[in-house]
Amino acid sequence: MIRRHPSDYVDVPSSPYLKSKKVKVWGLISITGVQNLIMYEGNLDGSEYSKILREVFGPIKDTFKKKKYLFMQDNAPAHKSLIVKETLLELGIQNLPWPPQSPDLNPIENVWSIVKQKLWERRNEIESNEDAQRLIKGIWYSIPKEFIEYLYRSLPDRNGKLFHVNGQKVS
User: Fold this and answer.
1) How far apart are CA 140 and CA 92, in angstroms?
2) Residues with Cβ within 8 Å of residue 106, at least 6 apart in sequence
3) Which residues are CB-neighbours of 48 under 8 A, at least 6 positions away?
4) What are phi and psi of 38, to 5 degrees?
C-alpha cells in the first residue's frame, strides 16, 4: 500500500526554527507491519515512481511469483502511467483495482495520520529538513506491527460498510 497522491507528503509543522515545509515520502506497509519508507524531492511522475518500485520490489520480485500478493495504490497519475503498469507487470506484481476518491478504505491513511500527529507532538525538535526526515523515519518504524495487522484485518468490514453506504465515505 502506498501513500496516495496528491498529498504524498507529510506536512512539517511550524516550529521555532522552521516555517511549515513539506517532506515528500513514499511508504509501504504489509500485514507484517511497516516496510520501506522513501524520501524524495520534486514531483513523483511515472518514471520516478517506477524507479521506486524497482528499488523496493526488484530484490524480492520472485516472492510475488511464488505467492499471490495484491498491491494497493490509488489512482494518482503516476500510478496509472504506462511505465508503471509495465514495471508492475515485469516485477510480477498484481495491482488491486481501486475506486477513485476512496482514501478512507486504504489502511495506510491511518498510518499517515499517526505519523502526522506524532510529528506535531515533536515539532519543537525540528530545526532543519534533516531533523524532520529523521523524526518521520523514527515515527514510521516505531508503529507497532499489531496495529498494521489490525488495519488489514479490518478491510472486509470497511468494504462491507462501503457497500451499505452506497459508496459514500466510510469512517
Assistant:
1) 27
2) 1, 4, 72, 74
3) 40, 42, 78
4) -120, 130
Say how far apart CA 141 and CA 25 lie, in whole Å.
13
Q: Among 75, 83, 35, which residue's Cα sits nearest to residue 59?
A: 35
pLDDT digits (tens, 9 = 90+) for 9-37: 566 666 555 555 678 899 999 888 999 99
Q: Which of 41, 42, 53 is nearest to 2 (CA)?
A: 53
Write the pLDDT tens digit of every residue in 95-109: 888 777 677 778 888
Tell me, yes or no, if the pTM score tops 0.85: no
What lies within 8 Å, CB to CB, of 17 at 6+ separation is 126, 127, 128
- Alpha carbons 39 and 71: distance in angstroms, whole number: 20
User: 155-160: which pairs have CB atoms within 8 A and are 24 or more residues apart?
Assistant: 155/105, 155/107, 158/104, 158/105, 159/105
Supply the Cα-derived Rg of the chain in whole angstroms.
Answer: 17
Beta bridge partners of 40: 24
Q: Which three cell numbers stand for residue 117?
A: 500527529
